[in-house]
């Protein structure tokens, strides 16, 4: 059988795996691993959010630390998450969900920090000076003027980090951290490639859903008139002018 036929068979095995209710409801089944995956990812993103956004706001508001944010972003691309997990293995942190959460949080900080900084620096300086002239304190300028205007870029950083974390959390299974990656590692161990493909489908679907959810959150948080994209396109489309016979040309 050719490679194409084998691929089709494995995809069919994956669909059968996902359609089996027992694989979802058993102990350490898909539902349990999904909850574990979401918990690890959410904790990592929240931890990164608490660290990165305030620091990015401070640096962006003051205009300092541009070189630091660029350097941090570059370093983060060079240090893979798996390397951090390996380092944690020889420290008191060890293996498990805690090590995975910390490593993923470290991985998520740079895009959030960089986008927050760039978003704040991109705010029109005339708007900032006008707010100061109106008597706003520096804190009010940052939170009531710069933050709303920087929100689209800030949320882009959060969305990028969250999708990366959801996808990379699959590595947790390599260090006894749980999550959907266990389906993939167990499938390889048992040479059940249908389960491997099923695990990959689940992780990819979860990443796409995370992206869509955060796009909606970003749309809701961005100041200005709220219009759904398809409604905006429909309103902006030209309307044909009727002729004397009532039929457009």
Automatic annotation (TrEMBL):
<protein>
    <submittedName>
        <fullName>Osmoprotectant transport system permease protein</fullName>
    </submittedName>
</protein>
<feature type="domain" description="ABC transmembrane type-1">
    <location>
        <begin position="34"/>
        <end position="214"/>
    </location>
</feature>
<dbReference type="InterPro" id="IPR051204">
    <property type="entry name" value="ABC_transp_perm/SBD"/>
</dbReference>
<dbReference type="GO" id="GO:0005886">
    <property type="term" value="C:plasma membrane"/>
</dbReference>
<keyword id="KW-0812">Transmembrane</keyword>
<feature type="transmembrane region" description="Helical">
    <location>
        <begin position="161"/>
        <end position="181"/>
    </location>
</feature>
<keyword id="KW-1133">Transmembrane helix</keyword>
<comment type="similarity">
    <text>Belongs to the binding-protein-dependent transport system permease family.</text>
</comment>
<keyword id="KW-0472">Membrane</keyword>
<feature type="transmembrane region" description="Helical">
    <location>
        <begin position="193"/>
        <end position="221"/>
    </location>
</feature>
<dbReference type="Pfam" id="PF00528">
    <property type="entry name" value="BPD_transp_1"/>
</dbReference>
<feature type="transmembrane region" description="Helical">
    <location>
        <begin position="40"/>
        <end position="60"/>
    </location>
</feature>
<dbReference type="GO" id="GO:0031460">
    <property type="term" value="P:glycine betaine transport"/>
</dbReference>
<dbReference type="GO" id="GO:0055085">
    <property type="term" value="P:transmembrane transport"/>
</dbReference>
<feature type="transmembrane region" description="Helical">
    <location>
        <begin position="81"/>
        <end position="109"/>
    </location>
</feature>
<dbReference type="InterPro" id="IPR000515">
    <property type="entry name" value="MetI-like"/>
</dbReference>
<dbReference type="InterPro" id="IPR035906">
    <property type="entry name" value="MetI-like_sf"/>
</dbReference>
<keyword id="KW-0813">Transport</keyword>
């Amino acid at each position: 059988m050719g490679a194409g036929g084998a691929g089709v068979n494995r995809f069919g095995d994956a669909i059968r795996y996902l359609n089996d209710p027992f694989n979802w409801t058993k102990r350490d089944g898909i539902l349990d691993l999904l909850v574990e995956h979401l918990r690890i990812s959410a904790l990592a993103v929240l931890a990164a959010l608490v660290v990165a956004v305030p620091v990015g706001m401070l640096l962006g508001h003051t205009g300092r630390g541009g070189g630091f944010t660029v350097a941090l972003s570059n370093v983060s691309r060079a240090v893979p998450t798996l390397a951090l997990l390996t380092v944690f293995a020889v420290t008191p942190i060890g293996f498990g969900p805690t090590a995975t959460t910390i490593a993923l949080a470290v991985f998520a900080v740079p895009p959030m920090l960089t986008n927050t900084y760039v978003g704040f620096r991109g705010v029109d300086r005339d708007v900032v000076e006008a707010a100061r002239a109106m008597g706003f304190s520096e804190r009010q300028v940052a939170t009531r003027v710069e933050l709303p205007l920087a929100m689209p870029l800030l949320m882009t950083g959060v969305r990028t980090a969250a999708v990366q974390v959801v996808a990379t959390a699959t590595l947790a299974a390599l260090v006894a951290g749980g999550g959907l990656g266990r389906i993939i590692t167990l499938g390889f161990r048992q040479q059940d490639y249908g389960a491997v493909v099923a695990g990959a489908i689940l992780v990819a679907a979860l990443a796409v859903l995370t992206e869509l959810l955060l796009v909606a959150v970003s749309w809701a948080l961005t100041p200005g008139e709220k219009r759904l994209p398809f409604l905006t396109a429909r309103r902006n489309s030209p309307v044909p002018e009727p002729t004397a016979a009532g039929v457009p040309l």
